[in-house]
Amino acid sequence: MAATSTSNEFSRPKNYFATTHWSVVLSAGRADSTRALAALETLCRTYWFPLYAYIRRRGHGPQDAEDLTQEFFARLLEYHWLDAVKPAKGRFRSFLLMVLNRFLANEWDKVRAQKRGGGIRALPLATGSAETRYAREPATTTTPERIFERQWAVTLLDQVLLSLRAEYDQGGKAALFDALKPCLVGSRETLPYAELGARLGLSEAAVKTAVSRLRERYRQRLKAEVAHTVSSPEDVDPELRHLFRVLTRT
User: Which of 92, 120, 174, 211 is the 20 to 30 A CA-CA neighbour of 217?
Assistant: First the structure.
């Protein structure tokens, strides 16, 4: 996860990229190494919800969607479905959706016919809040693919904020992060620095500096999180641009 990245992560030589999650999985060839499997499990636990939302928009009910999501990840880990990774063009996002569609086409009847989990080692997923999160989606004709991509982008940004807050918390500055967080998406006019400084007991100049540092760390962590889901440094910026386009769709 991005919480393990450092401030100079993107100033390192390109070969540092071999330590990121999806790259670890791909370099292993198959998910049979301890390190690669751990990396894949972390990615799955982080990005399960976009698949749940996709399955729901495909017409499955909440319980079936939960069962299918859990079973999909269990089989992904157990049966080495990474053999199908080449058509995914190196993006974990594309790989997951491609393999999920194959799973839904071929395995749905089997999943319905067997007890949940089917004896395969389950991957713990925080599915308890899944339907609450899904209910926030607008009741429109948005396609399953668009919901998947939007939820992927939202999940990624949430991960960045969580890891960034953890970094500030470790430095004893969680309250500062919470106060400055609105500045990541707003402007000085929305939240005047002088007013914010008065709340924090800081000068306007000090607030300006703190906001600048926060935005820089946010950019670094955002790139680091995206790097966990693509296979090469060259894919990071295109993936970022794509996800921002997804978020601005109407």
Answer: 92
Residue 80 tokens read as 């080495």
Are residues 111 and 71 in contact, defined by beta-carbon separation less than 8 angstroms? yes
Element housing 231 (H / E): none
Taking a C-beta distance cutoff of 8 angstroms, is the pair 224, 10 a contact?
Answer: yes
Question: Do residues 11 and 171 touch, judged by C-beta distance below 8 A?
Answer: no
Annotate 182-197 with b (16+ C-beta within 10 A) or e (fewer): ebbeeeeeebebeebb
Give the SS3 label for residue 148. helix
- Burial of residue 14, with CB atoms counted within 10 A of its CB: 0-12 exposed, 13-18 middle, 19 or more buried: exposed
Query: What is the tens place of the pLDDT at every residue in 156-214?
Result: 999 999 999 999 999 999 999 999 999 887 666 667 889 999 999 999 999 999 999 99
pLDDT over threshold 60, residue 3: no
DSSP 3-state percent helix, strand, coil across the chain (nearest 5): 75, 0, 25
Determine which helix (DSSP H) or strand (DSSP E) holds 184, and give its type and residue range: none
Domain boundaries, the chain: 14-248
